[in-house]
């Protein structure tokens, strides 16, 4: 695991993009594992800027997202499909049919999750972007999730719903109670993982991920066992590392 500390959010995004760009330039048909949330938005802006400058094309690339809320229509602005369209897909030349986000409205969520797992097994990400929850979750794999989990439906922890209430008029009751998430084993199948973390609210989770025991109590600690992980944080998120 390589850990890099940037001075602020913009530098964090830039350093993560530099690492990602190597994959984008070396493999024109790369599979991109993507995340939602506030953390990767700066990285996505840099991807868009380089696309607009004619430096990278996504026309032969495929993407696969980590997770989606259960029960939110894709037209809801906070559905992760809408988030990805708004913050990335609508601004680059990736083909929408090549972008994959779990279907949180599927009447058979378990079967859809199994199909997602099978897709990931056949198309492991060349680069997987991750954020981290303040409780150490990656994707929506909350503390206690088995390390050998595949795509599954989760009940979101109250703390996670509180953290995400800022996207739902600060009203926790509007935050969905369930989500579909890639499992930890699916995430570990990526060839290269870039985890970004910014802000003091992530400092403890970052410390547990890097310095704590490899334990299901901190799902992100599984990344200590992956051969190719880059963690990029800002100074606030790195607070307990030194
Ligand atoms: C999002 C995801 C989550 C977030 C995490 C941090 O697809 O899988 O694990 O990465 O909750 O969210 P932000 O970036 O909003 O702090």
UniProtKB/TrEMBL annotation:
Catalytic residues of the enzyme: 67 (proton acceptor), 135 (for ring-opening step), 137 (proton acceptor), 142 (for ring-opening step)
GO-annotated molecular function: glucosamine-6-phosphate deaminase activity; identical protein binding
Catalytic activity: alpha-D-glucosamine 6-phosphate + H2O = beta-D-fructose 6-phosphate + NH4(+)
Pathway: Amino-sugar metabolism; N-acetylneuraminate degradation; D-fructose 6-phosphate from N-acetylneuraminate: step 5/5
Entry GO terms, CC: cytoplasm
Gene Ontology BP annotations: carbohydrate metabolic process; glucosamine catabolic process; N-acetylglucosamine catabolic process; N-acetylneuraminate catabolic process
Enzyme Commission number: 3.5.99.6
InterPro entries: Glc/Gal-6P_isomerase, Glucosamine6P_isomerase, NagB/RpiA_transferase-like
Domain Glucosamine/galactosamine-6-phosphate isomerase: 13-226
NCBIfam families associated with the record: nagB (TIGR00502)
Role noted for this protein: Catalyzes the reversible isomerization-deamination of glucosamine 6-phosphate (GlcN6P) to form fructose 6-phosphate (Fru6P) and ammonium ion.
PANTHER family: GLUCOSAMINE-6-PHOSPHATE ISOMERASE (PTHR11280)
Stated family: Belongs to the glucosamine/galactosamine-6-phosphate isomerase family. NagB subfamily.
Protein name: Glucosamine-6-phosphate deaminase
Gene: nagB
């Amino acid at each position: 695991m390589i850990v890099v500390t940037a001075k602020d959010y913009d530098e964090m995004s830039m350093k993560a993009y530099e690492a990602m760009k190597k994959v984008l330039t070396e493999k024109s048909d790369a599979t991109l594992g993507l995340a939602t949330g506030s953390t990767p938005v700066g990285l996505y802006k840099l991807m868009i800027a380089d696309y607009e400058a004619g430096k990278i094309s996504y026309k032969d690339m495929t993407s696969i997202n980590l997770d989606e809320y259960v029960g939110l229509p894709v037209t809801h602005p906070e559905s992760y499909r809408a988030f990805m369209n708004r913050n990335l897909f609508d601004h680059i030349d990736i083909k929408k049919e090549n972008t994959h986000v779990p279907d949180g409205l599927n009447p058979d969520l378990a079967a859809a999750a199994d199909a997602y797992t099978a897709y990931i097994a056949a198309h492991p990400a060349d680069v997987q972007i991750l954020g981290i929850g303040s409780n150490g979750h990656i994707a929506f794999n909350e503390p206690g999730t088995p390390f050998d989990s595949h795509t599954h439906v989760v009940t979101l922890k109250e703390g996670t719903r509180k953290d995400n209430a800022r996207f739902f008029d600060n009203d926790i009751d509007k935050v969905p109670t369930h989500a579909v998430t890639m499992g930890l084993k699916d995430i570990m199948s990526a060839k290269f993982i870039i985890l970004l973390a910014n802000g003091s609210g992530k400092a403890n989770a970052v410390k547990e991920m890097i310095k704590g025991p490899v334990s299901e109590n901190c799902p992100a600690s599984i990344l200590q066992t992956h051969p190719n992980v880059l963690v990029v944080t800002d100074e606030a998120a790195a607070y307990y590392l030194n």
